[in-house]
Amino acid sequence: MHVCIGLIDLDIFLNQKSIFMNYSWNVVATLADCDAILTLVSREQADLQFAKAATEREITHYAENSVEVDAELQKVNAELAAYTTIVANLPAGENKEANITKLKRLEVRQRVLADRKNDYGVVALLDKQLSLGRIEKELVEVDAFIASLQAHKATLTA
């Protein structure tokens, strides 16, 4: 008989136990115990699936923001370089003061973008991808646990 439970093919799972933890099913003696454990683990599985979906959305958001922030930062850096040159070559007066004000605004914008780059840039993106990898591994283990629990439950009598 071939059984597939969730993402885990039970035949493959049972033949490759070494990749998953060896659980102490001998201490679980009743169907009610199995059902209680299954309820708890199913909640954990749902929480992990929610976390996975949320993290995937964050990764998409971070990837989009990373590109936008980098492009905007390059633009601001170019403007800063231009205004720095302009201000350095202008004689004192109203025009120079107006350009100094623009230069200071660009410096503030540059700092804000640099902070956003740290918060949503490549490093933050990679951190989110690492988190997603961890969540996916936990889901695999939870799925294996559920499959193993259901296999044990099938051996018990009411």
What does this structure look like?
With 158 residues, the chain is mainly α. Helix content is 80%, strand content 3%. The protein has one domain (27-155). A two-stranded antiparallel ribbon has the order 1-2. β1 (4-5) and β2 (8-9) form a beta hairpin. Mean pLDDT is 86; it is low at 1-10.
Label this structure with key terms.
80% helix; mainly alpha; 158 residues; two-stranded antiparallel ribbon
Stretches where pLDDT falls below 50 for ≥5 residues? 1-10
Strand order of the largest sheet: 1-2
H and E string: EEHHHH
How helix-rich are the residues, as a percent range?
A: over 70%
| Strand residue content | under 5%
| Mean residue pLDDT | 86
Kindly provide the radius of gyration, computed on alpha-carbon positions and rounded to a whole number of angstroms. 28 Å
Give the CA-based shape. rod-shaped
Report the biggest beta sheet as strand number plus sense, adding barrel if it closes: 2 strands, antiparallel
Number of helices: 4
User: Using DSSP, what is the number of strands?
Assistant: 2
Concise account of the structure shown:
The protein is mainly alpha-helical and about 160 residues long. It has 4 helices and 2 strands; from the N terminus they run ββαααα.
